[in-house]
Amino acid sequence: MGTSHRTHVSYIDRTRAYYAALGYEKPYQYAHHTEVPFAPLPRPLAQCRVALITTASPWPEDTDQPLKPFERRGVWAGDATHPPERLYTDNLAWDKESTHTRDVETFLPLRALRAQAEAGRIGSVSARYYGVPTEYSQLRTLRQDAPAIETMCREDQVDAVLLAAL
Predict the structure, then answer these.
(1) Is residue 115 a part of any domain in this protein?
(2) Across 2-11, 29-38, 138-147, which has the greatest mean pLDDT?
(3) Domain total for the chain?
(4) pTM for the structure as a whole
(5) Which has more pLDDT, 1 or 8?
(6) Does residue 23 lie in a domain region?
(7) Is 104 within a domain?
(8) Which long-range contacts (CB under 8 A, 24 or more apart) does 23-32 make?
């Protein structure tokens, strides 16, 4: 009996094919930055306020602005003390045949982050978590979405963020 092996699927090729199927004329270009916008922590991690960022969206029925497949929604924030029971991910590209996103904690691990604060590994969890759209336009991400997230993080006195992307 022969052994079958799964063939390698290039994420880059798959992403380019996905965006081409959506009608984008130019092939997807992955971001490349010679200067990285990261900074050292201002204090030890055990004293830092940490926030989560997700690429999921509020569930369409849970908002007054329903989201259609492949529709772009702007940056948003939610109450981290009351994690949502569900977030909308159907408009994102992920392997829907091999996995699911019904367990919000797998891509918005607020309970796990809170446990790290209780254990003293981080100082605290931000009062809000943030949502940022998965975006084809790197320019829009750099000029609109990233500054909006930065503004909210500064308002909440966040020292570090974790991106939990789908």
Answers:
(1) yes
(2) 138-147
(3) 1
(4) 0.75
(5) 8
(6) no
(7) yes
(8) 24/136, 28/136, 29/138, 31/138
Question: In this predicted model, what pLDDT tens digit does every residue of 57-98 receive, in sequence order?
Answer: 887 666 655 545 444 567 889 999 988 888 877 776 667 777
Q: What are phi and psi of 62, to 5 degrees?
A: -90, 5
Nearest to 133 by CA among 84, 74, 77: 74
**pLDDT tens digits for 117-126?**
999 999 999 9
Domain residues for 46?
A: 41-164
3-state SS class at 54 = strand
Average pLDDT, integer, range 11-36: 80
d(CA 130, CA 57): 10
Q: Which of 33, 32, 49, 29 is nearest to 41 (CA)?
A: 49
Q: Which of 89, 96, 101, 82 is nearest to 60 (CA)?
A: 89
Nearest to 15 by CA among 101, 96, 92: 92
Nearest by Cα to 148 from 132, 159, 162: 132
Q: Can you list the pairs that 100-103 forms with residues at least 24 positions away whose Cβ atoms lie under 8 Å?
A: 101/56, 101/166
